[in-house]
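Annotators were shown the component list below and the corresponding predicted structure, then asked to write short factual statements about the assembly.
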Amino acid sequence: MDAADLGQHISKRYNEELERLRNGVLSMGGLVESQLESAVQAVVVGDSELGLRVARDDYKVNRMEVTIDEACSRILATRQPAASDLRLIVAIIKTITDLERIGDEAEKIGFLASRLASMERPSDRYRELKTLGDHVQLMVHNSLDAFARLDAKAALATVKLDDQVDDEYDSITRQCITFMMEDPRTISRVMNVTWVARALERIGDHAKNICEYVIYMVHGKDVRHTDSEAIEREVIKGGKA
Amino acid sequence: MDAADLGQHISKRYNEELERLRNGVLSMGGLVESQLESAVQAVVVGDSELGLRVARDDYKVNRMEVTIDEACSRILATRQPAASDLRLIVAIIKTITDLERIGDEAEKIGFLASRLASMERPSDRYRELKTLGDHVQLMVHNSLDAFARLDAKAALATVKLDDQVDDEYDSITRQCITFMMEDPRTISRVMNVTWVARALERIGDHAKNICEYVIYMVHGKDVRHTDSEAIEREVIKGGKA
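Structure shown to annotators:
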């Protein structure tokens, strides 16, 4: 084996390590998506057992975060990645933190679903929560998709969805306050509904964070704390460059 | 200048870079502490202007996060740190994310304070919120102190405070539900109180996260998602080694 072969061999193994890391993030994302889906389902159909299962399974998400985090540190130490590889690793370290927090919020929703299942159910069967849940699930799905395809434009489109999610959250909260005022006997139950809505709204924020890391990976520019028009300019400029 | 001088020169500059980074985190922490203090103060004394100032100043926290984050990436790329230096950088990348989120929660509390200031004030002048706020401020302060002194034992003691904060949060929430049931006219106001309490509880979680990164820096072991007794065993074992 000559030096060139060895070089190629090392770089091939390195590429495999990076690929395994990316796949790890996507597996973790898949698990988080399925936890979120079950949690929303548990609220909507009033399935206490399903809610508790989501809460019980959160440790699997946590375990994946620790494993991927360790793999990132190992690659940073042994491969000393530069430029786009380094951006990938830093983005992964941040992404898995947000995925883990999405898992935490799904766990909370699971517990709340179990509590709500034992209470009187409203005639609309939590239609608004279902709609908010669908939109948030779409945000999470699209953010992972943008991550997988390193697609800054798709990431940007998902960032924009967050405004709609925030509006829906505000509307549910206002509605909940009205319900409680009209019939104070519903306060305990409706408070649980506001907490589910709050958890969903936070999941939207985490999906938005992931999208911003994708844009950072692709364009090498930090777009956090920037309004969405400025991000758009950046993505379009980057696309032309 | 011979090679040894040059080596020392490079390592001296590298050490200065790391030191500057640590100081940057502590400055950011100081700003976040002062934002949190003002936000709680604004709620307790009903100072709308102060609340809005906290919200307006959040951009300063965000700016510091981006600056420190870029410095971390630069050091990772140019210095290729290993072992404890690498753990320091990874811990900083995570710590500033939590500090930034504490800033976001302080911003929310600022807005809520401004809203609450225009509403009727309860006779206890939000005593429970003040107590919760004090404990959360202590957690944030101690977590930054543990970070500055790389003190895993202090970090562990702070992790344990989080249980107390969670209990206080639960108690405020239960009390709020009782108030609303007894007098539904208070619902709008009391909902704002529950949101302040929720924001404070989340800040406690972020301070706990920072403490776990400190333990990771010192012991090189990931203690997240581990119960506090297991963390304690780890810290004590590490201390003896």
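Statements collected:
1. The radius of gyration of chain A is 21 Å.
2. The domain at 3-240 of chain A is CATH 1.20.58.220 (Methane Monooxygenase Hydroxylase; Chain G, domain 1).
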